[in-house]
Amino acid sequence: MTAHPAPRERSAASVTVPMALLAELTHRCPLACPYCSNPLELTRADEELSTAEWIGVFEQAAALGVLHLHLSGGEPASRRDLVELVAAASRLSLYSNLITSGVGLTETRVKALADAGLDHVQLSIQGTSAASADRIGGYKGGYQRKLAVAGWVAGAGLPLTVNAVCHRQNMDELEAMIALAVELGARRIEVATVQFHGWADRNRAALMPTREQAAAATVLVAAARERYKGVIVIDYVPADHFATYPKACMGGWGKVGLNVTPSGKVLPCHAAETIPSLTFESVRDMPLERIWREGAAFNAFRGTDWMQEPCRSCERRDIDFGGCRCQAMALAGDPAATDPVCVRSPLHGLLVEAAERDAAAEAGAFVYRGR
Amino acid sequence: MTTPAALRIDGSVRLRLARGVRLHRDEVRGQTVLLAPERAMALDDIAQRIVAALDGQRTLDAVVDGFAEAFNAPRDEIAADVLAFVRELADRRMLEEMP
User: Fold this and answer.
1) Within an 8 Å CB–CB cutoff, is residue B80 touching chain A?
2) Model's pTM, two decimal places?
């Protein structure tokens, strides 16, 4: 006799209202950061959604309950219609956040964005000197340009967050990066240890922080939060390869946010395309709300029904949701496996060994995209 | 380069929401939220009233006086609640001081 598994039911109530939409307006970017989170295969400019298509996505997102709209890329300033897109977001009362390298912005354009209703700017830095930052970003003159952009942002009255991706080759500059952010007038800094997806995986041996660096960064951030209380808010993503439990990736799959690629594919997270068993719908073919509620990729890991052991019976399953699905795919070969970052994963030992091996490797030259 | 100082929160300051922090009526969820970078704080009625009172013109003392009168409640209690909430917003860099 065969036991038939109960059909998988999903009531409408179990689908939450999304808070945030990350709009990857384009994959074009003048920089070549060795940890670029965009996929290995980039979308071509002629495949990108048009201005009207993006505005349609924003309208649907606002109706769906999205509050935060992140305008990202690639470099979003590579889109000629950026001001127009910001104006549309503003009309819809979406909280618009421009995530930029700064390259492609001018003082006039920053002012136009502010006038169009942009709410906030998030500017990346790669280091605290032109030499180190421009080498990491693969763009000569980038560092100086970023300092200028920060000044224009302040001049336009826009609030600024500095975004600092940390890895072995700049983690020792962390204190100086926080000080630079304060000096640039940022109200907030995101200190995010590099995630080994996409292009970053190619550069693991050059980027993996050492265990000592990861521990020192955590201590440093705690002290800096105290010292700069009320001056700058520090958000921190620690190095998860040296962690005990995985991060609560995306705040839960299909729970808080969604991501639209330059060509309109809707993803539960920016790296979701690395999971070969998933299929994705496009805003060109289906309403956004239907994709969010019914899309196969969104329902694949929504909630906890999909979990295997040790996650299924774990008391932390609603805290970290089993960690990162893309990392489970990359390291365990199974997107429903426990993220190997978790000490309870049978693969955790191998993950730590690999991280320590990469951290001890001689930091050779970066492999830059397209070069 | 000197480090900018955190806001001094006492009864004499005039505060308002900083640029990039704004109230939003969230019709989908039926609530009022305070939007800021990477944050959406759902505000209850009292919190909404406090935020509305941070108009950059009244001092915090005046705001507290107003609430003490409106709610007919002990001023000390009101002051403690208002200051705790205002400090929380200030620590998140959501407020600015007006001269």
Assistant:
1) no
2) 0.94
